[in-house]
Design a protein that fits this description.
Blueprint: E1 13-16, E2 19-22, H1 33-36, E3 40-48, E4 51-53, H2 55-68, H3 77-91, E5 96-103, E6 120-127, H4 134-139, E7 141-149, H5 166-177, E8 182-186, E9 194-195, E10 198-204, E11 207-210, H6 219-231, E12 235-237, H7 242-246, E13 250-255, E14 259-266, E15 269-270, H8 277-288, E16 296-298
Parallel strand pairs: 7-8, 7-14, 11-12
Antiparallel strand pairs: 1-2, 1-6, 3-4, 3-5, 4-16, 5-6, 9-10, 10-11, 10-13, 13-14, 14-15
Bound molecules: pyridoxal-5'-phosphate.
Residues 44, 194, 197-199, 216, 218-221, 254-256 line the site of pyridoxal-5'-phosphate.
């Protein structure tokens, strides 16, 4: 693999067909099953102030997804790491959204057997993408609890990061129709599942709770779970009934796109505390961890 110049494709870069290119070259075939069947898996890491955060966790999850999807890519883990570093470097980015994607590929014309397709690997880096920008977070995010049921985990394994998002996307329209900012969906038993790009947490009587199943095991979720341990905050990973979320002391969401984001209102109803004391502690600790050498991986210079 060649090396790249810093800022070679200022503003963002894609790795496609074995080389780094400008974002305008980020295209897939209409015949790729990644497009026609959402037959793809991906992961999104972030770089903040010139360093990746928890890149190893994202690589672990991506390679786990590939295995579950019975996909193979022609790059080792060390090579994928280098590709991601160079996407950020070529884009000249300090704070970045960094995606790695594998699609099933294009099977021979007329073939219907997924085993015949050659899987395709792509990666790209863009300027950092927030679930809600800091100004919106300060103003207060209104979360809508949609009645839509998340696609069953028995059908599509949610721990494999995937593009089966129509339930989540339609729940965003539900939210906008009601004047809310974003949404989360539930499971068939009426428990909270997750939202478009984030996991959901509630705090009641000093105890943090988050769903135990039917969700992507977010790296920021993992970070919050670990931080609860370090900070001595009681935590229960268990089903969270949607009705309990609506009356919690504090609610927050977690995502690589912004870390710990406090929720101000659920369906227009203000929560008791905004931002609540536990949410604030976790949010500050989340960002402080970015300085921790165990989780920091400076972008190739
Ligand atoms: N749940 C879903 C459906 C997601 O797409 C994401 C991230 O994109 C998350 C949860 C949060 O995951 P992470 O903390 O790794 O960003």
């Amino acid at each position: 693999m060649r090396t790249v110049e810093r800022g070679e494709f200022e503003g963002g870069s894609v790795f496609i067909e074995g080389d780094w290119k400008p974002l305008s070259e980020a295209k897939v075939s209409m015949f790729d099953w990644g497009f026609t069947r959402s037959d793809a898996c991906y992961d999104v890491a972030t770089a903040w102030h010139g360093a990746f955060f928890r890149l190893d966790d994202h690589l672990d999850r991506f390679f786990h997804s590939l295995e579950k999807m019975r996909m193979t890519i022609p790059y080792s883990r060390a090579e994928v790491r280098q590709i991601l570093h160079r996407c950020v470097k070529a884009g000249g980015l300090e704070d970045a959204y960094v995606a790695m994607v594998c699609t099933r590929g294009v099977p021979p014309r007329g073939a219907r057997d997924p085993r015949l397709a050659v899987n395709r690997f792509y990666a790209y880096a863009l300027p950092f993408v927030w679930i809600a920008p800091p100004e919106k977070q300060a103003q207060g995010i209104d979360l809508h609890i949609s009645r839509r049921i998340r696609i069953a985990p028995e059908s599509v394994d949610p721990t494999v990061k995937n593009y089966h998002w129509i339930d989540l996307v339609m729940s965003m329209f539900d939210a906008y129709d009601r004047g809310a900012d974003t949404s989360c969906v539930v499971d068939a038993q009426g428990n909270v599942a997750e939202g478009p790009g984030f996991n959901v947490f509630m705090v009641e009587n000093g105890v943090v709770r988050t769903p135990d199943r039917g969700v992507l095991e977010g790296i920021s979720r993992k970070t919050v779970i670990e931080l609860c341990g370090t900070l001595g905050i009681p935590l229960r990973v268990e089903p969270v009934p949607a009705v309990e979320l609506a009356s919690a002391d504090e609610v927050f969401i977690s995502s690589s796109g912004g870390g710990v984001l406090p929720i101000a209102r659920i369906d227009g109803q203000p929560l008791g505390d905004f931002p609540g004391p536990i949410t604030k502690r976790l949010r500050d600790a989340y960002w402080a961890l970015h300085e921790d050498p165990r989780h920091r991986d400076p972008v190739e210079r």
